Amino acid sequence: MSHHESSESKPKKKVQVATGDRAILPEGAKTIPVYIMGKKYEVPETLTIMKAMEYAGFKFLRGAGCRGGICGACPTVYRKPGDYKLHFGLACQTVVEPNMYLAQIPFYPANRAAYKIEDLEPTPETIYALYPELFRCVACNNCTKACPMGVDVLGYISALKQGDIAKAAELSFDCIQCGMCASRCMGELPQYHIAQLARRMYGKYIMPKAEHLAKRVKEIESGKYDDLLKQLQTMSHEELEKRYKEREREPDMAPNGTWMPASDPYL
């Protein structure tokens, strides 16, 4: 028996067909093969990774609340056919591609310092003391390449090494704490935890305070608006809807500080 004949006589490996019911498919959608955690599935080509996994029978017990790229709990690592590079994305946003190999990393166990923000001095030295590994960074930029949100991770780490907390807070503003940066770091930095500390310090101690907001909070605490709130609470649904639709609205293109409502019971 020839080699060709023997290979033909072997039973073919059965491919599991996706059978989940959570995806509403466009009419005429085609299916494509994808490999989820190493196993082959046929899923509609139009779905995001998250919906494709649900279509394949996976159930998300956590990390699927927002489905809009904000919570950071569905980071996914994948490879494309013929491409040696690792790619990173959020399962709720990334659309499946034929023969994509993917795996999810819903949590990455990076080092996280314990502290009380009220007890900290807002200085770079505080960050260095809590995260001395900051200086193990070798500027390879793998962290930035791994970020599914396009955050300049190396940029904010470099800013902190130079003592610029405000710049680090600004550059890391879109961080969703998914941990993909730390998963690729040869220096083993917990970049996203370091950035979170920088933003907390900036917000509590460094950022200019909104005086008008503090004034309004004091007015609320003094009871200035208690009667208005009681009035709203006694209104019917129809009355509230009418009040909402007829409310005064600032024109979209009004220059700052030039518009005031004709009626000002809330001011």
From TrEMBL:
Annotated keywords: Iron, Iron-sulfur, Metal-binding
Bias (Basic and acidic residues) ranges: 243-252
InterPro entries associated with the record: 2Fe-2S_ferredoxin-like_sf (IPR036010), 2Fe-2S_ferredoxin-type (IPR001041), 2Fe2S_fd_BS (IPR006058), 4Fe4S_Fe-S-bd (IPR017896), 4Fe4S_Fe_S_CS (IPR017900)
2Fe-2S ferredoxin-type domain ranges (all copies): 38-96
Chain residue ranges for the region called Disordered: 243-267
Domain 4Fe-4S ferredoxin-type: 136-186
GO molecular function, one term: 2 iron, 2 sulfur cluster binding
Record has Iron as a keyword: yes
Protein name as catalogued: 4Fe-4S dicluster domain-containing protein
Species per Swiss-Prot/TrEMBL record: Desulforhabdus amnigena
